[in-house]
Amino acid sequence: MAVRRGYSALQMTLRWVIAILIGVAWYSGDGTARALRQRVTTGILGNTLHVRIGGAVFVLVLVRIIVRCIQGAQASEATGPAWQEMVATWAHRLLCVLMVLVPLAGAAAWYGHIAIAADLHPILANGLMVLALGHAAFAIWHHDVVKDVTLRRMSAQIADDKMPPCKARHPGSAVFINPDMVSASQHW
Ligand code: HEM
Fold first, then answer.
1. Is the CB of 26 under 6 A from ligand 1?
2. Contact 141, 151 (CB under 8 A)
3. Residue 158 in contact with residue 5, Cβ under 8 Å?
C-alpha cells in the first residue's frame, strides 16, 4: 500500500470549512455591536447570524482539536531555515489560540455583557484575520516559489509513489513521516 503524506479527509474538510466560516464570521460582524446594545437595553434575546456562524467556528475548532489529538499531526515538510520553521510553528500556535479566544470573547460580550470582552473581541478577530491571510499567503508562496508540497498536502492526500523522493526535491531536508499519521490516513 502506498505511503501517504497529507491530512486525513476529515482534517482537510474541517480546515477548509473553518477557514470559510471565519471569513463569513468576520464579514458578518458588522452591526453586531448595535445588536448587542439593543440586546442589553431591551433584553430581547435573539441570536444574529454572526453569533451563529461564530459559534459554529468555535464548535468546529474544538472538533478539529480532538481529531488532531486522535489522528496526530503531520510533520512539517517545509525546507527553509530553522528560524522560518520556528516562526511558522509559533504562528500556527497563535492561530489556534485565536480561533478559540475570538469566539470565547464574542460569547463573553454577547451572553455575559462583559464590556472588556466586547472591546477585545474585534481586535482579536482582526488579528486572527491578518494571521489567517498571512498563513494563506505563505502557503501560496511555498507552492509557487519554493515549489514544495505544503499547499498540496492541505488539499489532497499525496501518494509517495507519485512524488519525487523528498530529499531529491529538497536537498538536505530531513522529512519525517509520522507513522501514526500514515496508518491513520490509510483508514480515511
Ligand atoms: C471566529 C469567529 C468570529 C469572528 C472572526 C468574529 C469577528 C467579529 C468582528 C470583526 C467584529 C467587529 C465588527 C465591527 O463592528 O466592525 C465582531 C463583533 C462582535 N462579535 Fe464577533 N466574531 C466571531 C465570533 C463571535 C461569537 C461566537 C460571538 C458571540 C457568541 C460574537 C459576538 C460579537 C459581538 C457581541 C460583537 C460586537 C462587539 C462590540 O460591541 O463591538 N462573535 N465580531
1. yes
2. no
3. yes
- The residue to which cell 454572526 is assigned: 50
- Provide the residue ranges of all domains of the chain, joining segments of one domain with +: 4-170
CATH (residue range 4-170): 1.20.950.20
C-alpha cell belonging to residue 154:
492541505
Atom of ligand 1 nearest to the CA of 110: 35
Q: Of 42, 45, 99, nearest to 68 (Cα)?
A: 99
**C-alpha–C-alpha distance, residues 112 and 36, integer Å:** 11
> Is 4:185 a contact under the CB 8 Å cutoff?
yes
Which residues make beta-bridge pairs with 4?
Answer: 159
Length of the chain equals: 188
Render pLDDT for 147-164 as a digit per residue (tens, 0 to 9). Answer: 676 666 666 555 444 544
pLDDT of residue 80: 73
